[in-house]
Amino acid sequence: MSAETTDQNPPAGRPIRSIAGPLDRLSYRLAQTVRTGWFAGHYALTARLSPPTGRDGTAADKSPLPSWQTINDDLKTLFERDWANIEAGLYRPPHDMWPNPLAVLRQSARYFDDLGQVNDRKRDRRGNEVFSPEHRGRYPRYYLQNFHYQSDGYLSDASAALYDYQVEVLFTGGADAMRRQLLVPLRAAFADRRIRDARLLDIACGTGRFLSFVKDNYPRLRVTGMDLSAPYLTRARRMLRHWSRSHLAVGNAEALPAVDASIDIATCIFLFHEVPHAVRRRIATEIARVLKPNGVLLFMDSIQHGDRADYDPLLERFPQAMHEPYYADYVRDDLSGLFRDAGFEVDLVRREFFARMMVLRRL
């Protein structure tokens, strides 16, 4: 498939690269079928090997969970949208749609090797191992958690190496496709901006997974990835090594490493559910500070209560099964009001499988 990239702004409604053909469609569908089966199998085996989840006996806790068929149909809808965007030329197919099988098998072995330690923490409800003397004072207290009961929290090379794989197991292979939906409003943001002159800041960029999709589509876009974890940024540096005009910096989202009104586009993916109520507001205000007037914030995080009613029982039970101390507050937080108070206008709110996507404009 020919897939040329360009720094010229495309005419409204026109693709920025050639449309994919039937063989590309077949390759994509086969790859996603394999991917879903692989990670769903991991999810099922993980559930079987994990200790029982404690329940509090509330009415919400007793509500029926959605069936596997319901979730699988929803995932298929996500993949159909992902492919439609690719076919329309809104963004390229995943650059690693067919990963090295040996590398995948090695990751699987690492995942299950670590699962025993994860389950020990889950059984004992030990989610604060990283709140240790070596880390205290260097990071915010809320950050020093073993989120998802994962080994080392976010503070080791081993954790960084496993993170993306663990997230794909959690979403049965749909995590990357959810993230890619932000590439559609990203393209729209270039309607009145020159790509090579724009600056994008990815807040809490983690291993750089989303930035790799951004750079694969816009190689001349200047991007900065910021995260509190130096090991995760090391992984991100490796992820972005093929592209220039990429910068990575250790930093706190409450004090972004950028001057006032200097950023055209900010992205923030799966951060807000892992910070306390008041911190979310400080981060939103800080994002507003660094964005230019009419700058764009592309936001993605967990769905919230009411985004899809039959998924609400899952949102209730998730923090019981995984160490997520701020999640119960997050799913009931008024995100639209939060961002309006910080100086944003809400342009779009849409559910993408288990993610809430929001597009916001700095007033």
Features:
alpha/beta, 12 helices, single chain, seven-stranded mixed sheet, 7 strands, 363 residues, disordered N terminus, Rossmann fold
Word description of this protein:
Helix content is 42%, strand content 14%. With 363 residues, it is an alpha/beta fold. Among the domains are: 118-170, no CATH class; 175-362, Vaccinia Virus protein VP39 (Rossmann fold). It has a 7-stranded mixed sheet with strand order 3-2-1-4-5-7-6, with helices on both faces. Helix 4 packs across helix 8 (230-239) and helix 9 packs across helix 12. The longest helix is centred in the N-terminal third of the chain and has 28 residues, at 22-49. The N and C termini lie far apart (40 Å).
Q: At the fourth CATH level, what is the homologous superfamily of the domain at 175-362? A: Vaccinia Virus protein VP39
Portion in strands: 5-15%
What is the SS-derived class? alpha/beta
Please bin the fraction of helical residues: 40-55%
Which residues sit in consecutive blocks of at least 5 with pLDDT less than 50?
A: 1-15
C-alpha geometry: globular
Q: What would CATH call the class of the domain at 175-362?
A: Alpha Beta
Main β sheet profile: 7 strands, mixed
First-residue to last-residue Cα separation: 40 Å
CATH topology of the domain at 175-362: Rossmann fold
Give the H and E element order.
HHHHHHEHEHEEHEHHHEE
Instruction: Report the count of strand segments.
Output: 7
Query: How do the strands of the widest beta sheet line up side by side?
Result: 3-2-1-4-5-7-6
Q: What CATH architecture label of the domain at 175-362 applies?
A: 3-Layer(aba) Sandwich
> Averaged pLDDT, please?
93
Query: How many alpha or pi helices?
Result: 12
In angstroms, what is the radius of gyration? 20 Å
